[in-house]
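Proteins fold reproducibly. Next comes a concrete instance:

***
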Amino acid sequence: MDDKLFNDLIEIGISKETAHAVAVSLNPDHIATQKDVLRLEKLILDSRLSAKKDIIRLEQALKKVDVEWRKAMVEQQAKSTELYANSNRQFIITFLGMMLTACVLFAMNYYFH
């Protein structure tokens, strides 16, 4: 039991000294003292601190990914806007060319008839 508990505590990131003290404190042959209670409280606080550090690290990574994603979206929107502007400009030029052609044809038709 003590070795399994010790190994489990080491796996979750508790220091070896604290893990050993907790494993010894939870031994059924051991008589609990106030130090044992303090060790357990220290273990709980250490695990909470470790979890909070992990959460903070993950939040920072998430913010970094969010910033990169937003930059990529802005770049994509800029490309899309530029493409739309080019397409719009090309449409206007083509439309005006067709209108000019139609006007020339009507003028020539009117002149010769």
About this structure: The first helix runs from residue 2 to 11. The helical segments are 2-11, 16-25, 34-112. The mean pLDDT is 86. Residues 2-112 form one domain.
